Sequence to fold (565 residues):
Amino acid sequence: MTVSQTVERKPDQLKDVPTADLVACPWGNPRSSRDPKKYNDLRESIKAKGIHTPLQGRQREDGKFEVLCGNGRWGLALELELPTVPFIVKQLDDFEARALALSDNIDREQLSQVDEARAAKGLIGQYSGDMQAVANHMGWTDRKLKQYLQLLRCTERVLSKVGIKNDNGFTLTVGHAGELSRLEDELQDQLLGLIIQEKMKLSVLRGKIEKAIARPICQAIFDTGDCAHCEYNSQQQVSLFDNEAEPNTALCNNPTCYNQKTDAHYTARRIELEKEYGTVVMLSCVEGKMVEVNETSVGKKCFVDNCSTCPKNVAVLADKGLNRDAVLENQCIDLDCNTKMVKAKSKPATSAKPAKADASKSSVATNKLSKGTTDATDSEPAPTAPAARITKAVQDDANDFLRHEAALLLAKHPSYTLALTYATLKASHTASIISHTVEKHLNDSPEELQKLIGQEIQQITFNSRDGNPLNAHEMVRKLGKHLPDLKSNLTAKWLPTEAVLKNMQKGLRVQIMEQSGFAEKFTQQFGEKGYKKLLGLDGDNQIKAIVAYEFDWSGYVPEYVLNSK
Fold:
């Protein structure tokens, strides 16, 4: 259970904790390098006086203590064989714990720029791929965040040398690393030794790269129509002297232009994909921080009900490697949650108590909204469902549909007209809200309402003043929740029309097909391969296939429709 689910947060506790009971937090220490002199001074201080500044962290269920602040002191305690250390135990969820570890390192001793970049990358999953939120958390501009993430394209060998003084007195700067990050891994490592050996200035390195980089135009992912006659096209340059140049040898000698067009392509591609998938994250931003989630890994029920519409189930656009521009669907960027779901699936099913089994059957009998309901004996886990990714267009469709059905029933309600009349009269000279008044008196008898109306007319005659405007659209939906026939009407009449489906992202369409029984019937008719082919279609063609398939949708309505406000 996370802290956000806990009713009351326990106060911080200071205690002496056995050094042997300390463990590292799951995401590790944000700092990968330290100032040797300061670290040695700290060692001598602890050796002489012990640890005065407590470590900070949280206690796990197994009794161990995760270290969030004070990794250096912990390491020295182990080195100096201290039996115990002062430790402040805090009650934190994962998000708060990450923030504490990061802020402590920044406050105590400035993180290296490489460590800051790694810390920012680690926050991408926490913020569901929202790069603006990551930038805000770090106190950076969007441009600075992009620059630091670009730095992580360097090889580990390059990153390990940044800020380190070599034997010849040369120090590789972040600027050097930034220039190297534009190159392929093998070339980065080749140039690294030369840069250190020659103590190469940043301006010299930049000039060499600008001259040396030559990108095959045939491998560009953007439209190369403008490249054919570009002055930086090597084929155009060669043709001045050699008319026999091979067309497929054309190279781009303007890396700045090449990179700008590549970035523009990925930006446009991401915007296009977001219509279908919602959140789209670049592979270079989450590589190593994502895992594919599917029915096999977490179980069909968990995947359909939870993961398919989870905001942390994203599409990843490959902007590096051999499969550039490919889209990786169903990539979970919350590794902790994914691990819990996978473990939950692997646990053996437990027998339900008789009382709970009866309650489950009763629930199924009274709520026949979904044709795709799983058996009560299903061994797969039933974790708490995250908030589904419901777009504004989808919610607007649900609101309009619910309002229309509620309006039809209210029009026939014996007390609705009188209750609305009374509420409108009352609102004309008081601060009352019409929808609240109608809701309160909807089930009053006509005689009672007639009496109230008469009283309000008397009040208006002698004490009239401006009131609140009528919000009929919201009111009808709200009142509809009190009508016993609304749920059955919604269930009988809801249809996934082409317009409704176009407003949905792919994950929500899959969830609806699975929960309604559509997937089961389609698979029975066309087999697993046929259903997988349907899932693999692009948005427009998938929608057309769903609408064209003959399926009885009566008896099913999505939960987001019923929960419309």
Remarks:
- The longest strand covers residues 13-18.
